[in-house]
Amino acid sequence: xxxxxxxxxxxxxxxxxxxxxxxxxxxxxxxGYNGDLTSxxxxxxxxxxxxKMSTIRTANYTRADRTAIGHEIKVRYIAAITI
Length: 83
Hints:
The protein has 83 residues and is an alpha+beta fold. The protein contains 2 helices and 2 strands; from the N terminus they run ααββ. The protein has helices at 11-24, 39-53, and strands at 56-64, 72-80. A two-stranded antiparallel ribbon has the order 1-2. β1 (56-64) and β2 (72-80) form a beta hairpin. α1 crosses α2 (39-53). The chain is elongated, with a radius of gyration of 20 Å. The model has no long low-confidence stretch (mean pLDDT 84).
């Protein structure tokens, strides 16, 4: 896997996106080199970016069956997150 942008013109947009994510998690990110960040800070920025890019969430639950007393059924909810 490579960290190169598939669309070179998207580099500036990705940098803005990274700066927004850093701001949201409270990390002071500078333009250019940021080698002084801790692993925790860098990871929180990347995690925030992935969280925003992953727009579909799923959740699995077990709930009481409404048609058969004493039985349970498995339910899967799929939700799209819009921003």
